[in-house]
């Protein structure tokens, strides 16, 4: 019997505790979770993973989360990447781009779960899932091996104590 293919989620936040907490929550929802603490690491993950959703701290580094999402969506196989931002207050950002949602801190887990379901319901995910995961668009290859020099892959037998973070992309 083939195992179910999990949607791939990238969490971008400079705080390691937030990454671990969100990863544990998302792992319980049967999602494959990867974490990045910097813009550079997030862009590295975007080139090596067929992401289905990204969660971004709105205050990531100097340019902010909106600019990071624009850079992620510039990657050819991620032009329709849905996003969930989290900010301290409503005045922290301008208008949101299409397929982007916003939560205020502290995060309400029920609201987060609802937005994740909304974000993952997109046409490229609504088609029947095939036995071999395909990238968002035909003709684009995504490497799921984790053999990137910038990726530290964590599995249940690794130093990751909870076994919930698929990888931490660090630069």
Explain briefly what this protein structure is:
The chain has 171 residues and is of the alpha/beta class.
Describe it.
A 7-stranded mixed beta sheet has the order 5-4-3-1-2-7-6, sandwiched between helices. The chain has a domain at 30-125: Response regulator (Rossmann fold). Helix content is 28%, strand content 18%. The chain is an alpha/beta fold and 171 residues long. α3 (65-73) links the parallel β3 (53-57) and β4 (83-87). The longest helix is centred in the N-terminal third of the chain and has 13 residues, at 16-28. Mean pLDDT is 74; it is low at 125-163. It starts with 7 loop residues before the first strand and ends with a strand.
What kind of sheet is the major sheet? 7 strands, mixed
Low-confidence stretches: 125-163
CATH superfamily of the domain at 30-125: Response regulator
Report strand order across the widest sheet: 5-4-3-1-2-7-6
The total beta strand count reads 7
Figure out the total of helices.
5
What's the average pLDDT?
74
CATH topology grouping of the domain at 30-125: Rossmann fold
Percentage of residues in DSSP E strands: 15-25%
H/E element order? EHEHEHEEHHEE
Main structural class: alpha/beta
Distance between the termini: 38 Å
Determine and state the CATH class of the domain at 30-125: Alpha Beta
State Rg: 15 Å
Query: What percentage of residues falls in helices of 4 or more residues?
Result: 25-40%
């Amino acid at each position: 019997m083939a195992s179910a293919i999990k949607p791939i989620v990238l969490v971008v936040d400079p705080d390691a505790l937030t990454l671990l907490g969100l990863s544990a929550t998302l792992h319980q929802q049967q999602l494959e979770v990867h974490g990045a603490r910097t813009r550079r690491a997030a862009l590295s993950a975007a080139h090596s993973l067929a992401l289905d959703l990204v969660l971004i701290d709105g205050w990531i580094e100097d340019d902010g989360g909106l600019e990071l999402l624009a850079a992620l969506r510039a990657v050819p196989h991620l032009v329709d990447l849905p996003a969930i931002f989290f900010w301290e207050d409503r005045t922290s950002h301008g208008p949101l781009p299409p397929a982007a949602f916003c939560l205020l801190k502290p995060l309400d887990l029920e609201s987060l779960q609802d937005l994740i379901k909304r974000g993952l319901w997109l046409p490229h995910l609504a088609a029947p899932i095939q036995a071999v995961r395909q990238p968002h668009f035909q003709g684009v290859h995504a490497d799921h091996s984790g053999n990137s020099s910038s990726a530290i892959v964590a599995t249940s037998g690794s130093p990751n104590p909870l076994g919930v973070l698929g990888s931490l992309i660090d630069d």
